[in-house]
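Before the break, one more example. Copy the sequence into your notebook; we will annotate it together after we see the structure.
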Amino acid sequence: MRKFGEAPVWDVVPGGLRSAAVKLHDPFDDLASYRILVLDTHPLIQTSAGVRTAVDRLASDLVAAGARVERHSALLPDQIEAARLYMRLLLASVAAAYPPDVYERARATAQRVGADDVSLAAERARGAALTYRDWVATDTLRTRHRAGWSELFTEFDIVVCPAAPTTAFRHDQSADQWTRTISIDGVDHDYADQLVWAGIATAPGLPATVAPIARSGEGLPIGVQLIGPIFEDRTPIRFAELLEREFGGFTPPPLP
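Here is what the structure looks like once it is written out:
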């Protein structure tokens, strides 16, 4: 496994993906040169106090290192809309591999979802049975969000946010994953809703690197995801290297 600081073994932006409309930038070599947007909450699911505290501490450390750090931006695409479209696209992809009987049950479930239900669970149900027409409409919306992110990255070089709303949690092996829940500071949420943090970079196709930044009170690792401009995979990787250099990186926990 390659560690931060080792030379990459391939060019992460193949020449075939380069475009005259995409101007790639070399990542900076010091934290003080970065313009950083730090997010620690999502409008649709809470972030645990431990994760939020770790992100806030990192933001303070970055300011002390000389970086320009902002906590809000009007350029950030609508994260409620982004989460909803991600859930639709995710389940459309997952359901494409369903056996016929499972897919028919998914279609029946989607038909029972009310038109006014905008929950993420409802979006997942709709996504599993999207028509091609509706998939194209959702993908078009994704394209608009991608353009919004491109505009945001004219003002910022990197976005720092949670990789997940909690630290590692006990596995839930119940048969129906869609009825599972996850507890965040004592409040139960739909298990799959935590995927909003995965979708923030995945839906618009942005590169992201997860870097360790702290440990919880229980000794569990806390990481953040570092999101860079489209095709600029080296930027979040380099930023992770700089975090490790300035603040320390992963330390293996003691084995029992």
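The beta strands are 35-38, 68-70, 158-162, 181-184, 187-190, 208-215, 221-227. The chain has seven helices and seven strands. Try to locate both features in your own notes.
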